[in-house]
Amino acid sequence: MNVVITGATGKIGKALAPFLRSKGAKLFLQGSSKKEESEFEIFFVDLSTIEGIDQCIHSASQHLGSIDLFIHLASRFEQKPFEEVTEEDWDRGFDVDLKAAFFLAQKLAPHMKRGGSLIFMSDIYAKKPYAHRLPYCIAKAGVDALTKALARIFKDRLRVNALALSRIDTPEEMQEVLEKIWSLATEEKGSGHLVTL
Predict the structure, then answer these.
(1) Which domain holds residue 60?
(2) Whole-prediction pTM value?
(3) Into how many domains does the chain fold?
(4) pLDDT tens for residues 87-131?
(5) Distance, CA of 186 to CA of 115 (rounded, Å)
(6) 3-class DSSP assignment, residue 26
């Protein structure tokens, strides 16, 4: 299985890469922070721009050829009161969480095998927005809508689902997330689902 993961340097990404490798997956990993060492090769690019998205797609297709699974973990999570949110804060929240999800899906789809899977990360706060994280919460609500729309667009070719998470505080909770991602990727349970954990 050929897999593209964005946000691979984050908490879930760092756990997901070895988990998928143990399942025999060939990985292309995108990250935005070079602060930490990794046992994996990571392609560092800014997904908030179309240029960065194009670079990511080109490198992924060169590395993997065809793609079976795309997992969009990349996210910008900032906490700020409603009254203090700036246009820059708003754009940062939407560019990585929603704009990148849209254009990565659009540009990756031609490289994906029939029966492949797109998985987006949502959040339980997409439905119950938290006042101090509005750009993030509203962008995740957009991810939910995008998931449903893409499920219809790709209904005869690809499965598209989203996983809405709450906090992950224990190794057991992380393992549950990893198993659910694997289930969404490999079991043909339909498309357009918003799974909450």
Answers:
(1) 2-196
(2) 0.93
(3) 1
(4) 999 999 899 999 999 999 999 999 998 999 999 999 999 998 888
(5) 10
(6) strand
